[in-house]
Amino acid sequence: MMRALWSAASGMLAQQLNIDTISHNLANVNTTGFKKSRAEFQDLLYQTLRPAGIPLTRGTNTAVGLQVGVGVRPDAIVKMFTQGSVQVTNNPLDLLIEGSGFFQVQLVDGTIAYTRDGSLKQDANGDIVTSEGLFVQPQIVIPPEAGRVNITAEGKVFAQLPNQAEQTLVGEIELANFVNTAGLSALGHNLFAATAASGEPILGIPGQAGFGSIQQGSLESSNVQVVEEMVNMIMSQRAYEASSKAIQASDQMLSLANNLRQ
């Protein structure tokens, strides 16, 4: 019965983590470029009361063993990098990656982070930056006197300069990809960092093999499906309740055992 108490308690803790993950997904349903998370679990070690295959009588062995599990534990919280829906904004610096890849931005400490959030801006010097002022890499500068800005599916940035009939190429967007995107470390602010699990970034031109193309004037919405998350929340809540019932049943059994009289 004590084993049942600890097993049920581990189940309640696991479902609490699951609810935390689902709540985070729902809170970011309108966050541009957000990727939902999924909690994964695994069973704990088993107590072997009788191994399988041990001799019982002459010429006979046990066909199955006698093992009792001792609960569950969180194994991983995995980011799901499926494509989010398209939100058309008609803003020339709103960019959507159709397919795989990440924009590269430079953090204040000089390191490179990666994002799917393409809501870019132009600072006072003409540099293309994120909403927090982080420079897009490779750095792209649009002259202050430039007029209309066009960005092709291949990431080429053209600007209309005064007294010129044709637009001028002022920069090119380069995307990064990873062998294992689930291994990226979330930094918050819609940013990810490379890790040993994700591997080194693979750089390439948008639209080439393995990289998505750029769509100007659109943004990628969150890939959170509200109905799916609500169903997952209900299932997690019911599992939490079931584990609490197991604790109550174990407590009642212990109470009966303690009150036994000879």
Topology:
Layout: H1 2-27, E1 37-43, E2 46-50, E3 66-69, E4 72-79, E5 86-88, E6 95-98, E7 103-106, E8 112-115, E9 121-122, E10 128-129, E11 135-137, E12 149-151, E13 156-159, E14 168-172, E15 175-177, E16 185-188, E17 191-193, E18 202-204, E19 213-216, E20 218-220, H2 226-258
Antiparallel strand pairs: 1-4, 2-3, 5-20, 6-19, 7-8, 7-11, 9-10, 12-13, 13-14, 15-18, 16-17
Helix pairs in contact: 1-2
What brief labels describe this structure?
3-stranded antiparallel sheet, 262 residues, single chain, 2 domains, alpha+beta
Structure description:
This protein has 262 residues and is α+β, with helices and mostly antiparallel strands. It folds into two domains: 2-81 and 224-258, no CATH class; 86-220, no CATH class. 23% of the residues lie in helices and 30% in strands. The protein contains two helices and 20 strands. It has helices at 2-27, 226-258; strands at residues 37-43, 46-50, 66-69, 72-79, 86-88, 95-98, 103-106, 112-115, 121-122, 128-129, 135-137, 149-151, 156-159, 168-172, 175-177, 185-188, 191-193, 202-204, 213-216, 218-220. The strands form nine sheets. A three-stranded antiparallel sheet has the order 8-7-11, with no helix packed on it. It has a three-stranded antiparallel sheet with strand order 12-13-14, with no helix packed on it. The chain has a two-stranded antiparallel ribbon with strand order 1-4. Helix 1 (2-27) packs antiparallel against helix 2. The longest helix has 33 residues, at 226-258. The radius of gyration is 27 Å and the shape is elongated. It starts with a helix and ends with a helix. The model has no long low-confidence stretch (mean pLDDT 91).
